[in-house]
Amino acid sequence: MSNMCNILEYNRQFVDSKQYEQYLTDKFPDKKMVIITCMDTRLVELLPRAMNLRNGDVKIIKNAGAIISQPFGSVVRSVLVAIYELEATEVVVVGHYECGMTALNSQGIIEKAKERGIEDIVLDTLTNSGIKLHHWLRGFDNVHEGVLNSVRILRKHPLLPPDVPVHGMVIHPDTGALEWIADGYHYLEEQSSESESEEHSPSATR
Ligand SMILES: [Zn+2]
């Protein structure tokens, strides 16, 4: 039986036996958070359990590596929707050790695409259209760098409300142990004390 048939067969009894009742909630995140994390299979159940998250608690955005590669891509759009439309007030980027996006070999992916039938002319056309495949398929050198870069892009985003803390964390994919590597509360405090001291500095009062 195919995966899809298995899913549908299971689904029928899931719905018939009303197992959904334990998950009923609404679209607003009770913990007012939006989490950006990796699609890694080890995190599917582990991350919510390790962070004490239940259905209805948070918005979760996933991709390979929890990477925000551009300020006006779909990940940041999702973050903004969570904040402006769904009452999220805090953002957390959660990378993980042993991530497949660490030192991802873009050349290797391109070679595999060729082996799977993607012709050189297609790759040439993309390159000639200005698409930097090697850059686009790149991951990060280590997970800390990846998380901090995503945090940086969010913190300086022109459409992110200035009072929204953006945190960075790293989770261990076996134990679920978390490290808090970028403290969004502290960053906001620093920002506000910097702007206060600018207001009071002689150079700002001309
Ligand atoms: Zn990963």
TrEMBL record:
Keywords for the protein's UniProt record, in alphabetical order: Metal-binding, Zinc
Entry keyword Metal-binding: yes
EC numbers: 4.2.1.1
Recorded catalytic activity of this chain's protein: hydrogencarbonate + H(+) = CO2 + H2O
Cofactor: Zn(2+)
Source organism, top-level taxon: Bacteria
SMART domains to which the protein is assigned, alphabetical: Pro_CA
Positions in coiled-coil regions: none
Pfam families hit by this protein: Pro_CA
Protein's UniProt keywords contain Zinc: yes
PANTHER family: CARBON DISULFIDE HYDROLASE, CARBONIC ANHYDRASE
Family assignment from sequence similarity: Belongs to the beta-class carbonic anhydrase family.
Protein name: carbonic anhydrase
